[in-house]
Design brief:
The complex is a heterodimer of chains A (404) and B (139).
Chain A lengths: L3 H5 L8 E2 L2 E2 L1 E2 L10 H14 L9 H20 L8 E4 L2 H12 L8 E5 L8 H10 L2 E5 L9 H7 L4 E7 L11 H10 L3 E5 L11 H4 L3 E5 L10 E5 L1 H6 L10 E3 L6 E2 L13 H17 L1 H19 L5 E3 L9 E6 L4 H10 L2 E2 L1 E3 L4 H7 L4 E5 L6 H18 L1
Parallel strand pairs in A: 3-15, 5-6, 5-7, 7-8, 8-9
Antiparallel strand pairs in A: 1-2, 4-10, 9-10, 11-12, 13-14, 14-17, 16-17
Helix pairs in contact in A: 2-10, 3-10, 4-5, 10-11, 11-14, 12-14
Chain B lengths: L3 H13 L4 H13 L14 E3 L4 E9 L2 E8 L2 H14 L2 E2 H6 L4 H4 L14 H15 L3
Antiparallel strand pairs in B: 1-2, 2-3, 3-4
The chains are: A alpha/beta (404), B alpha+beta (139).
C-alpha cells in the first residue's frame, strides 16, 4: 500500500488554493506536476554546474556532459534499450515523431503506404501527412470500434507489401485505450514494414521494454512522467537510426564541416543539433528515478483504482456518457454529460479549483468518430486521491445544476 | 441606445452587485440560455469562428454605418459572454466600434474568459467585430 500523503508532500505545486478552493489537478494526461527532486535537480544544475556539453575541456562542461549522458543511460535502462546510442534526446514526443517522419520523406516513394490509426493525437497524424505530401506515399488509417478499441481486422487488411511504416499510439490520450502493441508490432514486421509507437501516454503508466516488444521506434515525453517540459526521447533501433537522414543541421551533429562536404556525427549526436535542454535532460533522470523508486506497477495499480472509482462515481451523475470503453484502459476517464458542453463544465470546475481537460484533446478525428465536439477528461497520476474524485463529482453535480 | 462607454459602465455596475463567482456565472448562463441570437441562415461555415474549445458564429449587418451583430455559440458560458459583447458593441457606429476600448472585460472579471489559453473563440470574435467595423468606418 502506498502512502499518497507522503507522495503528495513531495509535490509543492499541489498545495495551493485555486479560486479559493484546494487545487484538484486532474489534467495529468496533458502534463504531470513535478516532485521536489526534479525541481531541485534543475536548480542544482543552474546553481552549480551550468556549462555547454560535449565541447568544453573545462571542469564544468565535463561535469555537465557526464550528467547529461547519465540520463541517457538511465533512459536506456528504463525502457531496456540495447545501447545508449539508441536514445535520442528531443524536445518532446511531437519532436521525436517529426524527426522520424522528416527522415522518411526521402526514404519513401509513390506507391508506398504509411498506416496510422483513427485514435492518433494530431502529433502522430500531421507529420505523416507532411511526409506523404513530399514523398508521394499514401496515408492509410486504421478505424476504431465504437468501444474505443482498434479495429485489428481492418489493420490486417490494410497491411500489404506496400506498407513501409506503421505509426500508432500505445495509449490513447482521448480514450485511454491501451493498444495491443505486441500484436501491432508482430503483424507489421510480417509484411516487412517498420513501426513507430507514440508512447507519450504510456511511459508514465506502463513498463515499456523496447527490446521485448521488438519495436522499431518509440517516442515519449519527460513532462508527462513527472519530469521537465521540453525534453523528449526518440528510441530507435541502431541500424534504423543509422539509415535515417539527419533532421536538423548545426553544431554537435557533425563530424567534419567544409563547404564541399560535411559528414555527420555518429549516433546519438547525429540527431542532436544545437545546445539541448541540458538542465531538463539532467532533471529527467530524477523523474525516472522517482518512478522507479515507487515502482511503475505500483503507480499503475493506484491509477487503476482511481479510474475504477471515478467511473463508478461518475455513473451517479444523470446523463453520463463515457467516451471510450475499451477493454484495456489506462489512467483516464473521458466523458460527456447529456445536454452540456464540455467547455461549460470545464469553466465551472475551474471556478471550484478543479483542473480537468476539455475539448478535442488534439484528436479531432476521434471526436468526429463519436460525433461530439469534445469531451471532458479526468486523467490521474500517483498523487491523486479518491477524496479528490469525490470533490470533483460534487463539483460536476453543482455545475450540472447551474447549467440545467 | 447608450454609448459604448456608457453601456460598459452599466455592466460594471451590474456585475458589482454579484456576491460571488456563482452568482456571476449564473447570470452569464442565463444570458446564454436566452433566445437564439443569430438567424439560422447565418449559422454557416463562413461565419464560424473556431476555438479549440467552443465555436462561435458571428454575423454583422450594416445599416448606414450602424452595425448590428448577431452571434451564437455551442457552449452556454461562451454564448452568455457573446451576449454581453453584443450588448456593448451592437447597434453602434462603425467608427465607435473600431476605436472602442473594452475596459469592462477586465473590470467585471472576465479577462480569463477572453485569454488566449481559453481558445473558446471569444478573443477572435472581438477581433472580427472590430475588423468588420474598421473596414466600414471610412465608407
Amino acid at each position: 500500500m502506498i502512502d499518497v500523503g507522503k507522495i503528495r508532500a513531495q509535490f509543492p505545486l499541489l498545495h495551493q488554493k485555486v479560486n479559493g478552493e484546494n487545487l484538484v489537478y486532474f489534467d495529468n494526461g496533458a502534463s504531470t506536476q513535478k516532485p521536489q527532486v526534479v525541481i531541485d535537480a534543475i536548480a542544482q544544475y543552474y546553481s552549480n554546474n551550468n556549462a555547454n556539453i560535449h565541447r568544453g575541456v573545462h571542469y564544468l562542461s565535463q561535469k555537465a556532459t557526464d550528467k547529461f549522458e547519465e540520463t541517457r543511460d538511465t533512459v536506456q535502462a528504463f525502457i531496456n534499450a540495447n545501447k545508449s546510442c539508441e536514445i535520442i534526446f528531443t524536445k518532446g514526443t511531437t519532436d521525436s515523431i517529426n524527426l522520424v517522419a522528416n527522415g522518411y520523406r526521402s526514404m519513401l516513394n509513390k506507391g508506398d503506404d504509411i498506416i496510422i490509426s483513427e485514435m492518433e493525437h494530431h502529433s502522430n497524424i500531421v507529420p505523416w501527412q507532411m511526409c506523404c505530401e513530399v514523398s508521394g506515399a499514401t496515408l492509410k488509417v486504421i478505424p476504431i470500434l465504437d468501444n474505443g478499441d482498434l479495429d485489428m481486422d481492418a489493420f490486417e487488411n490494410l497491411l500489404s507489401e506496400k506498407t513501409k511504416l506503421v505509426a500508432v499510439t500505445h495509449i490513447s490520450n482521448a480514450l485511454g485505450t491501451i493498444n495491443p502493441v505486441e500484436k501491432l508490432i508482430t503483424l507489421t514486421h510480417k509484411v516487412g514494414a517498420k513501426i513507430l509507437i507514440d508512447g507519450a501516454q504510456a511511459t508514465p503508466h506502463t513498463l515499456v521494454d523496447v527490446q521485448g516488444l521488438d519495436v522499431d521506434f518509440y517516442c515519449f515525453s519527460a513532462h508527462k512522467m513527472y519530469g521537465p517540459t521540453g525534453v523528449g526521447v526518440l528510441y530507435g533501433k541502431e541500424a534504423l537510426l543509422n539509415e535515417l537522414p539527419p533532421y536538423q543541421g548545426g553544431g554537435e551533429m557533425i563530424k567534419e564541416v567544409s563547404f564541399e562536404k560535411t559528414t555527420y556525427a555518429d549516433l546519438p549526436h547525429k540527431f542532436e543539433a544545437g545546445t539541448p535542454n541540458i538542465a531538463g535532460v539532467i532533471a529527467f533522470k530524477a523523474a525516472m528515478d522517482f518512478i522507479t523508486d515507487l515502482g511503475i506497477s505500483t503507480i499503475a495499480k493506484h491509477e487503476d483504482t482511481l479510474v475504477q472509482y471515478a467511473t463508478k462515481q461518475l455513473l451517479t451523475i444523470s446523463g453520463m456518457q463515457f467516451i471510450g470503453e475499451a477493454k484495456k484502459r489506462a489512467a483516464l476517464v473521458s466523458f460527456n454529460i447529456e445536454g452540456l458542453h464540455p467547455y461549460d463544465i470545464g469553466v465551472l470546475l475551474d471556478k471550484m479549483g478543479i483542473a480537468i481537460r476539455t475539448g478535442h484533446h488534439c484528436a479531432q478525428p476521434i471526436m468526429e468518430h463519436y460525433k461530439v465536439s469534445g469531451t471532458a477528461r479526468m486523467s490521474f497520476a500517483i498523487y491523486n486521491t479518491k477524496e479528490e474524485i469525490d470533490s470533483c463529482i460534487t463539483a460536476i453535480k453543482k455545475a450540472q445544476t447551474m447549467l440545467a | 441606445m447608450g454609448t459604448i462607454v456608457a453601456i460598459q459602465a452599466e455592466l460594471v455596475e451590474e456585475f458589482d452587485m454579484f456576491e460571488d463567482w456563482m452568482e456571476k456565472y449564473e447570470y452569464i448562463i442565463d444570458l446564454g440560455k436566452s433566445l437564439p441570437m443569430i438567424d439560422d441562415k447565418h449559422k454557416i461555415e463562413d461565419n464560424l469562428i473556431k476555438g479549440c474549445q467552443s465555436r462561435v458564429w458571428l454575423h454583422a449587418d450594416n445599416d448606414n454605418g450602424i452595425i448590428t451583430y448577431t452571434a451564437d455559440s455551442d457552449a452556454i458560458i461562451t454564448k452568455g459572454i457573446v451576449a454581453i459583447l453584443i450588448r456593448v458593441l451592437s447597434k453602434q457606429k462603425a467608427a465607435e466600434i473600431a476605436k472602442a476600448d473594452l475596459v469592462f472585460i477586465d473590470k467585471i472579471g472576465l479577462k480569463e474568459q477572453l485569454s488566449q489559453t481559453r481558445a473558446n473563440g471569444l478573443l477572435s470574435m472581438v477581433k472580427e467585430m472590430k475588423l468588420y467595423a474598421l473596414a466600414l468606418k471610412d465608407r
